[in-house]
Amino acid sequence: MNIQKIQAILGIDTCAELDGADEEQLKQSIYMASAAMQEVEQELEANARYQEIKLQKAALELGKRDVDKRQKAKIKYCLHLIDERGKR
Questions:
Q1: Three-state secondary structure readout of the chain
Q2: How far apart are CA 70 and CA 64, in angstroms?
Q3: pLDDT number for residue 15
Q4: Are 88 and 82 in contact, with CB atoms under 8 Å apart?
Q5: What is the pTM of this model?
Q6: What is the Cα–Cα distance from 14 to 32, expressed in whole angstroms?
Q7: Per-residue pLDDT tens for 61-85?
Q8: Is the Cβ–Cβ distance between 29 and 21 less than 8 Å?
């Protein structure tokens, strides 16, 4: 991700705050951001509704992955045959 996109996500105020921070403060900000992400992840993992939806999503994606895998293999094999026959 380029720096302009990162700045757009953070906003002017957060960027200005971080621009004025020393190395220790920047390291502390990294730690706090990481801790916040872990806390949210732990809350989600403890949420029964989230777990139910996560399992449903995984089941739905399994079927899609199987279809995708087979169809991508079919495309690759067709391209292989075309190459083998010197038509591409």
A1: CCHHHHHHHHCHHHHHHHHCCCHHHHHHHHHHHHHHHHHHHHHHHHCHHHHHHHHHHHHHHHHHHHHHHHHHHHHHHHHHHHHHCCCC
A2: 10
A3: 95
A4: yes
A5: 0.59
A6: 14
A7: 998 999 999 999 999 999 999 999 9
A8: yes
